[in-house]
Amino acid sequence: MNVHMSNEVDALRLSETAAVAFADAVAFDSHGLVPVVAQQHDSGEVLMLAWMNREALIATLTGGRVTYWSRSRQAMWRKGDTSGHIQELVEARVDCDGDTLLLLIRQTGAACHTGARSCFYRRAGEAGPEPL
Amino acid sequence: MNVHMSNEVDALRLSETAAVAFADAVAFDSHGLVPVVAQQHDSGEVLMLAWMNREALIATLTGGRVTYWSRSRQAMWRKGDTSGHIQELVEARVDCDGDTLLLLIRQTGAACHTGARSCFYRRAGEAGPEPL
């Protein structure tokens, strides 16, 4: 089922069966986690990297809202529930080895807890890390 | 120092001092590793995720050629030395927490060992993972 998003892009929502079939193709690590790259679907900007367990992945695929596993809090974390900076799922990809996910998303507001649009706002320069 | 690349984009090469200063801002995990997202600098395509230790990061920043740490082989792995599918460094970014890197690169040929341009060539569909 696709639901309409405000910028004319459909959010992806899969059935439980389809979500489980996709999760079965993922090689979770020894902690039961997989790294997830979130990329803004239209601009191609890489916004953040976070982690999912199997439950978070299935919740994301069936709910259309990106849900991570917080390693620091050891809890499910549906992005934006506190900040309002939600991530709507557009497409979910898995890599050749099954051990990394790439999500194309629609980011509302800032992806980064610092308020920056992307978590990757520093680059390597001759004086060390510098603002972009 | 910037070196000229064939598609008119300069490759980034930092001094050893600058590379060390950048590496000092990186929070390597308990295995001494950090996940690295490789993105084609001009198209924005996310090509792969791999891992670096401190030595691989410094070699990448000073050498202009992307070098990873292979967890399966437990060895340094300068991308393209065997396949010819090299990655030239354009920009290196670090995220807010210092625990993920994003590299803008110039990919020659396929990033994926399967021969695919990107490792992310499958997406979630109603029948499970399907080709893009």
TrEMBL record, chains A, B:
Details of cofactor binding: Binds 1 Mg(2+) ion per subunit.
Main location: cytoplasm
Subcellular location: Cytoplasm
The enzyme's E.C. designation: 3.5.4.19
Coiled-coil residues: none
GO molecular function: magnesium ion binding; phosphoribosyl-AMP cyclohydrolase activity; phosphoribosyl-ATP diphosphatase activity; zinc ion binding
Pathway where it operates: Amino-acid biosynthesis; L-histidine biosynthesis; L-histidine from 5-phospho-alpha-D-ribose 1-diphosphate: step 2/9; Amino-acid biosynthesis; L-histidine biosynthesis; L-histidine from 5-phospho-alpha-D-ribose 1-diphosphate: step 3/9
Binding annotation for Zn(2+): C96, C112, C119
Residues binding Mg(2+), per UniProt: D95, D97, D99
Cofactor(s) for this UniProt protein: Mg(2+); Zn(2+)
The keyword Mitochondrion appears for this protein: no
Pfam families linked to this entry: PRA-CH (PF01502)
One of the GO biological process terms: L-histidine biosynthetic process
Record keywords, A-Z: Amino-acid biosynthesis, Cytoplasm, Histidine biosynthesis, Hydrolase, Magnesium, Metal-binding, Zinc
Phosphoribosyl-AMP cyclohydrolase domain segment(s): 48-121
Residues spanning the signal sequence: none
InterPro entries cross-referenced by the UniProt entry: PRA-CH (IPR026660), PRib_AMP_CycHydrolase_dom (IPR002496), PRib_AMP_CycHydrolase_sf (IPR038019)
One GO cellular component term: cytoplasm
Catalyzed chemical reaction(s): 1-(5-phospho-beta-D-ribosyl)-5'-AMP + H2O = 1-(5-phospho-beta-D-ribosyl)-5-[(5-phospho-beta-D-ribosylamino)methylideneamino]imidazole-4-carboxamide; 1-(5-phospho-beta-D-ribosyl)-ATP + H2O = 1-(5-phospho-beta-D-ribosyl)-5'-AMP + diphosphate + H(+)
Role according to the record: Catalyzes the hydrolysis of the adenine ring of phosphoribosyl-AMP.
Family (UniProt): Belongs to the PRA-CH family. In the N-terminal section; belongs to the PRA-CH family.
Quaternary structure note: Homodimer.
NCBIfam families linked: PRK00051.1 (NF000768)
Protein's recorded name: Phosphoribosyl-AMP cyclohydrolase
Protein source organism: Rhodovibrio salinarum
Gene: hisI
